[in-house]
Amino acid sequence: MSADLGVKIQLGLEELETVHKQITSLVKQTNSSDAGDIETAAACAMLHSFYTEMEKILKLIARDWDDRMPSSESWHKDLLNQMATATDKRLAILTPDLVETLSEFLAFRHCFVEPQSR
């Protein structure tokens, strides 16, 4: 494990906290029944940022601690499953329930990104 892995993970966790505060603020300001296009787009962007930052942390662990990063077409899902499996170097990072929840974020993220790339 590299010496700066902990620092990189801490920076990622701080970014997740920032996104959490932004989402919380948006939810407090907006009632879901009167959310307009701007509020909805902002919430989607924040959820996308949340998942992307979470995935960055998991990629750091996969590359540095596991010495392997999934490379198939389904690498995003494979990464979640890899992090749910203990190795001889580490405990499981994710529970099966958390993998399921993050898979929903992943599915949303693909829906959010793909329409813009057409």
Please characterize this protein's 3D structure:
By secondary structure, the protein is mainly α. It has one domain (5-117). Helix content is 68%, strand content 0%. It contains 4 helices and no strands. α1 (5-29) packs antiparallel against α2 (37-64), α2 (37-64) packs across α3 and α3 (75-83) runs antiparallel to α4 (96-113). The protein is elongated.
Secondary structure layout:
Elements (H helix, E strand, L loop, with lengths): L4 H25 L7 H28 L10 H9 L12 H18 L5
Helix pairs in contact: 1-2, 2-3, 2-4, 3-4
Write a concise synopsis of the structure shown.
With 118 residues, the chain is mainly α. The protein is built from 4 helices and no strands.
Structural class category: mainly alpha
- Rg, rounded, reads 16 Å
Number of helices: 4
- The number of domains is 1
C-alpha termini separation:
40 Å
Major sheet, described briefly?
Answer: none
Low-pLDDT residue intervals, each spanning 5 or more residues: none
**3D shape:** elongated
Spell the H/E element sequence: HHHH
What's the total number of strands? 0
Helix content: 55-70%
Q: What is the percentage of strand-forming residues?
A: under 5%
* Nearest-integer average pLDDT: 88
Question: Any descriptors?
Answer:
mainly alpha
